[in-house]
């Protein structure tokens, strides 16, 4: 049973009424992106109908409305992350841009030859490639926390990697490919004891767990709006305020300066120094509306409900003969990754699509972790709080039909 009215929640997401291939859509691709409640869609329309203006620069009524809406959204992000100050919340395009910003700003200024950056074997390419590029430029070294056969990080091995050369540990709170929830607090504490900074990738976690950056004590936290029921093209880089103000600007342009002459330029403090040019104003406002929506349901209620649904889905998937679940850590959230003996993952994805069921099949932009399990690709149903047991049953029935058997329920 959901601690909220699941039928009402489902009605808040108009796309769930969509028909695909003659069937009602079953959306199980939430790890790739989430759908938007009507309140977010309405907020975007309201912005363009009543508030649209560039922010800060013009002294007129609509500029004031747009600025209030944009800065109001930043304050909502602050509350959502429990940051100390809204100045610690920089609007960016998404998690990928946030990580690249830290790599190119802090990384270029602070990483030198033979320094070490630690990532985990679970990482999305977005939390591997920017560090690899930085290491190549600086002659630094990338090291990797290994996982066990369940897909959980091995902390004893991690402890051995930490040392005086470690400058940064960058890792994910939840794996997008396996669903593993990593012991973030402990990993962060160990990194800080070794004198390293920590970037936590919250792209998969913000829609399932409370992200309390003060309790976690991470130096940076990144997420994408579109994975938490907000529009695409907007995301957040959180950073501790003093640290952000020590970091050199990444992109130059309007908005990020205090004063410009041809001889020299003074930059704003954070967040302004990292928001050059006209930002994604309406979508930031949409992110604020999505946070309001999540707060109304309650992230703890969401997590508790999804946990029950994950247990149910895991139990039902295990009924399918020849199905191998990848990622069996005790601490998991929302993601089920599997391969089906005798079928290519694309075949499974296409068969499900014919029945209106959306899952991702592929490498999920996390090739290293799939290869750790000897695979190039898995089928990945992933849950959100608007999914229900009927969605899981539809998936199981479709898989059973694909195998030519009959579903047992
Ligand atoms: N990290 C993780 C764990 C992700 O799942 C994703 C998105 N799949 C990203 C980073 C990158 O997010 P985006 O593409 O929205 O920038």
From TrEMBL:
It comes from Collimonas fungivorans (strain Ter331). Its cofactor is pyridoxal 5'-phosphate. Residues 26-395 form the Aminotransferase class V domain. GO terms for molecular function: cysteine desulfurase activity; lyase activity; pyridoxal phosphate binding. GO terms for biological process: cysteine metabolic process. Signal peptide: none annotated. The keyword GTP-binding does not apply. It comes from the Bacteria. Keywords: Lyase, Pyridoxal phosphate, Transferase. Its EC number is 2.8.1.7. It catalyses: (sulfur carrier)-H + L-cysteine = (sulfur carrier)-SH + L-alanine. The chain holds residues 164 to 572 of 572 of the full protein. The gene is sufS. Belongs to the class-V pyridoxal-phosphate-dependent aminotransferase family. Csd subfamily. This is cysteine desulfurase. It is an enzyme of class 2 (transferase).
């Amino acid at each position: 049973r959901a601690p909220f009215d699941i039928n009402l929640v489902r009605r808040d997401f108009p796309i769930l009424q969509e028909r695909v291939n003659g069937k009602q859509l079953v959306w199980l691709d939430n790890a790739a992106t989430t759908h938007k409640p009507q309140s977010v869609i309405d907020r975007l329309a309201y912005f363009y109908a009543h508030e649209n203006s560039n922010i800060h620069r013009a002294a007129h009524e609509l500029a004031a409305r747009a600025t209030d809406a944009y800065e109001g959204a930043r304050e909502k992000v602050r509350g959502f992350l429990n940051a100390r100050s809204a100045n610690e919340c920089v609007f960016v395009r998404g998690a990928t841009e946030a990580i690249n910003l830290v790599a190119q700003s802090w990384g270029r200024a602070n990483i030198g030859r033979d320094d070490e950056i630690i990532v985990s074997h679970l990482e999305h390419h977005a939390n591997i490639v920017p560090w690899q590029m930085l290491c190549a430029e600086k002659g630094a070294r990338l090291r990797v926390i290994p996982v066990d056969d369940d897909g959980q990080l091995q902390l004893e091995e991690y402890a051995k990697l930490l040392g005086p050369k470690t400058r940064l540990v960058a890792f994910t709170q939840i794996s997008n490919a396996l669903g593993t929830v990593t012991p973030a607090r402990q990993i962060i504490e160990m990194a800080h004891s070794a004198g390293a900074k920590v970037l936590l990738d919250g792209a998969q976690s913000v829609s399932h767990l409370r992200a309390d950056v003060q309790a976690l004590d991470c130096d940076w936290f990144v997420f994408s709006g579109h994975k938490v029921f907000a529009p695409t093209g907007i995301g957040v880089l959180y950073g501790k305020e003093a640290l952000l103000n020590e970091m050199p600007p990444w992109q130059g342009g309007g908005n990020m300066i205090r004063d410009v002459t041809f001889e020299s330029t003074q930059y704003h403090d954070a967040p302004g120094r990292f928001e050059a040019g006209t930002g994604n104003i309406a979508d930031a406002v949409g992110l604020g509306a999505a946070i309001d929506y999540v707060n109304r349901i309650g992230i703890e209620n969401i997590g508790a409900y999804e946990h029950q649904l994950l247990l149910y889905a895991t139990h039902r998937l295990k009924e399918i003969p020849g199905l191998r679940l990848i990622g069996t850590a005790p601490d998991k959230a929302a993601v089920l990754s599997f391969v089906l003996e005798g079928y290519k993952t694309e075949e499974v994805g296409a068969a499900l699509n014919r029945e209106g069921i959306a899952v991702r099949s592929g490498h999920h932009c996390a090739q290293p972790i799939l290869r750790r399990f000897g695979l190039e690709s898995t089928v990945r149903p992933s849950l959100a709080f608007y999914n229900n047991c009927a969605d899981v049953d539809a998936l199981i029935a479709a898989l059973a039909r694909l195998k030519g058997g009959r579903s047992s329920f």
